[in-house]
Amino acid sequence: MPLPHVLLSAAVSLDGYLDDTGPERLLLSGPADFDRVDEVRASVDAILVGAGTVRADNPRLLVNSAERRAARVAEGRAEYPLKVTVSGSGELDPAACFWHTGGEKVLLTTDGGARRARALGIGADVVSLGPQLDWRRALEYLHDRRGVRRLMVEGGGTVHTQLLQQELADELQLVLAPLLVGDPAAPRLFGPGAYQGGRLRLVESRRIEDVVLNRYLPTAPGTGERVAAADRHWLALACELAELCPPSDTAFSVGAVVVAADGSELARGYSREGGDPVVHAEEAALAKVDPADRRLAGATVYSSLEPCARRASRPAPCARLILDAGVRRVVTAWREPDTFVPGADGTGVLTAAGATVVVLAEYEARAKAPNRHLEG
Ligand SMILES: NC(=O)C1=CN([C@@H]2O[C@H](COP(=O)(O)OP(=O)(O)OC[C@H]3O[C@@H](n4cnc5c(N)ncnc54)[C@H](OP(=O)(O)O)[C@@H]3O)[C@@H](O)[C@H]2O)C=CC1
Ligand SMILES: Nc1c(N[C@@H]2O[C@H](COP(=O)(O)O)[C@@H](O)[C@H]2O)[nH]c(=O)[nH]c1=O
């Protein structure tokens, strides 16, 4: 199921706190950074905070710049992004600024929380997601029912922790402020628990007055059938690589990436790479990895097209090469059509040998784009 692009945004002290324990919200960002946050808000379809943040900060979560709001309207978008909060209890103050400023608002909650919120007279769409609040369902709801493609999450720590631990975050924008809180009772950005192994990828580091903005991408693949945000990132890269293929009327243009369990890229390739007229993307990528590399056993192969099951031009099809390399997880965008090999079933070859194949159909159009001339 397609999900929104989830951007986690937070500012932290040098000792990792989101706030102090005083009655006022701690300003970690400076004016220029708050203006950057405003710009990010203006770029998204929805802004989400947890009920703890609504209670602690009484935020308005607006796009403050009139120019940015006007630009949204000129683009045919709502003046303000949808405001979303999540609460299990439904125990929220109906007089909070959240409900009385900006545009549309929605409360995502549980059956019990919905009863309580309605009894309190909360001024928003109150949406129950069942007896418990499941984050994947919440994101699916926002994507499918509210048209949210980009979601900015502005905390607090409980919400950020769950989204990162459940591998639903596509991006982290973290501002480090030069002050120390030093109070163990203050809220931290990330709590204890199991996170992806390995390192996140630092994609940008920018000084903004006296704070530093760091942007990170989680890169560790999911496991088995469980899809992580990073799976979408890597499959999108495979689709980009497919665009590099020398065009052909007799073969597909495909891109592939091999990624270790800790999120490090082992190799990438594309069809007909390096002047070889018949080399396939997965074959080109795997040829660049040392077969003795132990990381292959936990790796995922991302391929814009399902790995091939039969070949005339080579002794082994890509599904077999993947299995022989020891890889047991494949993520692809597009099942092979009958264009060149009727009834090709690379997925069948892989799954019969115990591998998992995940098809992310929302990338099918991108995978097909460099193959348009082959469609009958
Ligand atoms: N520096 C910064 O950038 C930011 C700082 N902050 C700070 O963070 C603090 C608030 O953080 P925190 O207390 O962690 O609160 P959160 O904003 O993360 O909200 C937590 C609440 O959200 C609801 N919730 C979250 N996940 C679930 C779930 N899976 N199922 C059901 N309900 C869920 C619960 O509401 P309920 O209790 O109603 O059931 C829970 O108590 C404040 O001090 C604020 O100032 C916040 C944002 C940004
Ligand atoms: N304190 C803090 C942030 N806090 C976030 O800003 C929200 C309030 O925004 P507003 O309604 O516009 O006043 C608050 O609820 C929390 O999500 N954000 C940051 O980038 N830097 C900061 O230092």
Detailed description of the structure:
The chain folds into 2 domains: 213 residues, Dihydrofolate Reductase, subunit A, CATH 3.40.430; 146 residues, Cytidine Deaminase, domain 2 (3-Layer(aba) Sandwich). Helices cover 27% and strands 20% of the residues. The protein contains 12 helices and 14 strands. The strands form 2 sheets. It has a 9-stranded mixed beta sheet with strand order 5-4-3-2-6-1-7-9-8. Strands 11-10-12-13-14 form a 5-stranded mixed beta sheet, sandwiched between helices. Bound molecules: NADPH dihydro-nicotinamide-adenine-dinucleotide phosphate and the ligand Nc1c(N[C@@H]2O[C@H](COP(=O)(O)O)[C@@H](O)[C@H]2O)[nH]c(=O)[nH]c1=O. NADPH dihydro-nicotinamide-adenine-dinucleotide phosphate binds next to β1, β2, α2, β3 and α7.
